[in-house]
Automatic annotation (TrEMBL):
<dbReference type="InterPro" id="IPR011991">
    <property type="entry name" value="ArsR-like_HTH"/>
</dbReference>
<dbReference type="InterPro" id="IPR011008">
    <property type="entry name" value="Dimeric_a/b-barrel"/>
</dbReference>
<feature type="domain" description="HTH asnC-type">
    <location>
        <begin position="3"/>
        <end position="64"/>
    </location>
</feature>
<keyword id="KW-0805">Transcription regulation</keyword>
<dbReference type="GO" id="GO:0043565">
    <property type="term" value="F:sequence-specific DNA binding"/>
</dbReference>
<dbReference type="Pfam" id="PF13412">
    <property type="entry name" value="HTH_24"/>
</dbReference>
<dbReference type="InterPro" id="IPR019888">
    <property type="entry name" value="Tscrpt_reg_AsnC-like"/>
</dbReference>
<dbReference type="InterPro" id="IPR036390">
    <property type="entry name" value="WH_DNA-bd_sf"/>
</dbReference>
<dbReference type="Pfam" id="PF01037">
    <property type="entry name" value="AsnC_trans_reg"/>
</dbReference>
<keyword id="KW-0804">Transcription</keyword>
<dbReference type="GO" id="GO:0005829">
    <property type="term" value="C:cytosol"/>
</dbReference>
<dbReference type="InterPro" id="IPR019885">
    <property type="entry name" value="Tscrpt_reg_HTH_AsnC-type_CS"/>
</dbReference>
<protein>
    <submittedName>
        <fullName>AsnC family transcriptional regulator</fullName>
    </submittedName>
</protein>
<dbReference type="GO" id="GO:0006355">
    <property type="term" value="P:regulation of DNA-templated transcription"/>
</dbReference>
<dbReference type="InterPro" id="IPR000485">
    <property type="entry name" value="AsnC-type_HTH_dom"/>
</dbReference>
<dbReference type="InterPro" id="IPR019887">
    <property type="entry name" value="Tscrpt_reg_AsnC/Lrp_C"/>
</dbReference>
<keyword id="KW-0238">DNA-binding</keyword>
Length: 154
């Protein structure tokens, strides 16, 4: 999809504040509200904008720990992959999972209440998924940068 300067401006404004009123977005990009509404609808319909969600603070919800878990499968057969991906999709403490290159097969981002909870998630859940060979955890000590915004060249 080809984005013009107005589309990029709209995206930049909504990434800054997805609850920004259309009139305010329109003012920022120097268009009237009606074409901005149409452009937002088109960006949503074409999948550029996939949705809107609040950005939550896990610590304020009782999740004091964040970890990245590296996982290897025993074998890369369809059954193992499907079973693993379903177990990951069903786990509420897994907030992201990526198939990766290198020594490990998956990089999983997990939130937990504390170290004991992380141990339960890792040893009693992730490691017990049929087809998982090994698991390595990396606990986050401090987050330096975390941003979901995608660079939009204007």
């Amino acid at each position: 999809m080809q984005l013009d300067e107005f589309d990029r401006g709209i995206i930049a404004a909504l990434q800054e504040d997805a609850r920004m009123p259309v009139a305010q977005v329109a003012e920022r990009v120097a268009l009237s509200a009606t074409p901005v509404s149409r452009r937002i609808k088109r960006l949503e319909d074409e999948g550029v904008i996939r949705g809107y969600a609040p950005v939550l603070d896990p610590r304020r919800l009782g999740f004091e720990l964040e970890a990245y878990v590296l996982i290897n499968l025993v074998a890369h057969v369809d059954e193992n992959i499907a079973r693993f991906e379903q177990a990951i999709a069903d786990n509420p403490y897994v907030i992201a999972c990526h198939a990766v290159t290198g020594d490990m097969d998956y990089l999983v981002r997990v939130i937990a209440r504390n170290v004991e909870h992380l141990s339960q998630i890792t040893l009693r859940t992730l490691l017990r998924i049929p087809g998982v060979r090994d698991v390595k955890s990396i606990i986050v000590l401090e987050t330096i940068k975390e941003d979901r915004a995608v660079p939009v060249e204007i």
